[in-house]
Write a structure and sequence with these properties.
globular; about 425 residues; homodimer; Alpha-Beta Plaits; about 20% strand; about 45% helix; TIM Barrel; 20 helices; alpha/beta
């Protein structure tokens, strides 16, 4: 087994779960729709995938793919099960695009499913040797920001789009003065006509370096270097590095695995991954793939900081799903330093700190607040202090409202942002 | 309007379709979850997306995302509508990763949908100037194979995985002798230990060139050059080209847009795109994105031959969906030569030729038969002849069974593969 790649598929079908599991194993290795002259027993033994286990689950009444497709319109019940399928290393190798093609991509084309989701992935050690993993990860992020014993507090230059470089730089000046550890471009900001990356870097980095000169604290600023053309992305990378920057936002799904591999091999920056588009792959709980599977690819490729959501996110993702993502990032794949720093964000402002800490029992995270910092009623500096106060309280086990009694910035946050979610947290 | 990028979203929600359309426009340009100091009217006018039109559709009783999520568990009816949203070019630019991030990727994270699908995309002319499109496309594919007036007949070396290079070469020898125009590696075959690409090329290309020498016909062989690392993929590309090859299979979703841009810029090969994994994005008819939207990106990036399915495919895709994909590929984006050659495949053997031709009224396609050729009862050469006979009949409007009366290879195909589908076709 140690030389096999094992995938787990949650299969839903009006027909036989086990039959479809066997079909995945056959279609995704040697098979086609008719018997073949060259498909010898010896060849099959060498490269054929095989079903290792099938565990039946409760049937469901509605098909995950909906009732539009003819074969799903009539049945009143759909069988469910989880199947483990082993793919021999000899057939796949350690190439991640090969793995994605053979064990994941193609399976979704097979007829007969009413739902299919990839829920598990176990890789042989050879993958750990073949791929670089994070260059900076958790320890590098802490070292470069000088933060330990508490979350790295980050924020996003907002509005997401529309500020010209001097306006962005003015906002950054206010945020570095405010004591924030990390600042990023919104993931939607790359290099538009009104804010070319080169000009933005030129406007912002002197602010960061000047602040470092005066205070000794170098704020990590992650610039949006994403570009479709990997050569252009590398030029973006290089100009951030040359200007003294140390981080970049990368929209991993938009560029794809190849460009990520290309970048990582040449990178001198902390690569902060935004997974926009991931929701397409995962939002329906019976379709697509689990984050635990998805993140394996990007960690091997070398993501240093991985955006996930947070408790009471502004996005659709439920808390339980966020926590599964967090714990997936915390599990070493092959060694402890292949763990990226979890980036907890989306509608965060500090109010979620107690619930977050209670669930994760760690401060090894980047706590990313957009509007929660920049729209604080007493200004961004107070926003940063409020977030740090909330985390101090969370770690010490002090109720936020009690802590707010002698922490006016936190009190103002609770007043401004604290709905039922936060009180409950 | 001509300077805007316009996306159409099919929105399904227990709440307000128009409200969610406005939320997409706001979240995906300037907005966050609280008002922002810098979000001035001038800035909004410059970069803000705006809802141009909302057309209500019939409500549905079951949410596309299923009933697992709390906000979708109770409602008995879900509102549906199509919304057109315009994004200013100044905010997005012509970068495809930026477009994907801003107008597609991020929208799927927004709370409140019970379903969301991107169904339309209209781009300003600047995109046509910014991207190369196909290098060879339809005309190049015809020229290099010497085929006109009928489909290019292609096949796949099977079994998909497991053959060693000399075994693959023996199969290729049989297929070129059989008169096939095009041969490809199965998309799952890249460069595994038992068949490294370099050895496969070395074994196969002499067979192709020898056949060309003797007959004047150069069969197009598309080798699986996909690799995660773009540098490695280029080395793969180069060794195919150096050996006299002229085509490559590229698993576009597995490598991603960046690696495709990288490859296209340097490519001397016909790039045959396999879209494995696309089904994840489209199989649920109310989630993900339409092929018409998806293919726009890959055509601009430079796909020369685009695999879609076919009539009565072995995969899940219904005929109507295949035909929409075909017609999407046939529509010029900005100019006639930005159209890749449609590759009609999946369970094809010739029996579907009449129905295919009746629907598409064109022979500008690569008709790709895997098992349908290599498993023909009289051997692959007969399989190729049977496919060409089927297309002759289809174009001439002759019934397949009638044509089979004096075409024994077609008769044998009908006997071996012709189920109810084919008879009906």
């Amino acid at each position: 087994m140690s030389d096999d790649i094992v995938l787990t598929y949650r299969i839903e079908t009006p027909g036989s779960v086990e039959g479809l599991a066997r079909k995945i194993a056959s279609d995704q290795s040697t098979g086609t729709f008719v018997p073949l002259p060259g498909e010898t027993p010896e060849l099959k033994a060498r490269v054929a995938a095989r079903v290792v286990d099938v565990r039946m689950l409760e049937p469901v009444a509605e098909p995950a793919f909906g009732r539009t497709h003819d074969d799903l319109a009539e049945p009143r019940s759909f069988n469910c099960g989880e199947a483990d399928i082993a793919f021999p290393m000899e057939a796949v190798g350690t190439d991640l695009a090969a793995l994605m093609t053979i064990a994941i991509g193609g399976t979704f084309s097979i007829k007969g499913f009413s739902g299919i989701r990839v829920t598990g992935l176990t890789l042989p050690d050879a993958f750990g040797r073949a791929w670089p993993g994070p260059q900076f990860g958790i320890e590098g992020s802490k070292r470069l920001t000088g933060v330990s014993g508490r979350p790295i507090v980050g924020t996003i230059v907002k509005p997401a789009l529309g500020l010209r470089p001097p306006e962005s730089a003015a906002m950054v000046r206010e945020l570095v003065e405010a004591g924030v550890d990390f600042i990023k471009d919104d993931e939607k900001l790359m290099s538009p006509a009104y804010s070319p990356l080169a000009e933005r870097v030129k406007a912002i980095m002197p602010v960061v370096l000047d602040h470092e000169q005066r205070t000794g604290k170098k704020v990590m600023v992650a610039f949006g270097i994403t570009a479709t053309d990997p050569d252009e992305m590398m030029r973006n990378h290089d100009l951030v590095l040359a200007a003294g920057g140390n981080a970049a936002v990368v929209n991993i799904n938009s560029i794809g695995m190849g460009a990520m591999a290309f970048l990582r091999r040449r990178s001198g920056l902390v690569l902060h991954a935004h997974r926009n588009g991931w929701d397409i792959l995962t939002r329906h709980p019976s379709l697509g793939l689990d984050f635990s599977v998805y993140q394996t690819f990007w960690r091997l490729l070398g993501v240093d900081q991985f955006q996930i959501n947070g408790i009471a996110a502004k996005y659709w993702e439920p808390d339980a799903s966020f926590l599964r993502s967090y714990h997936a990032l915390r599990r070493p794949l092959f060694r402890p330093d292949d763990r990226p720093l979890p980036v907890v964000g989306s509608g965060q402002w500090g109010g979620q700190a107690p619930a977050t800490y209670a669930a994760v029992r760690s401060t090894d995270l980047l706590y990313l607040c957009g509007g929660g910092v920049v729209s604080h009623p007493m200004g961004p500096a107070a926003g940063v202090r409020a977030v740090r106060q909330a985390w101090e309280a969370a770690v010490a086990g002090i109720d936020l409202a009690a802590h707010a009694a002698d922490h006016p910035e936190l009190a103002a946050s609770l007043e401004a942002f604290g709905g039922a979610d936060a009180k409950g947290a």
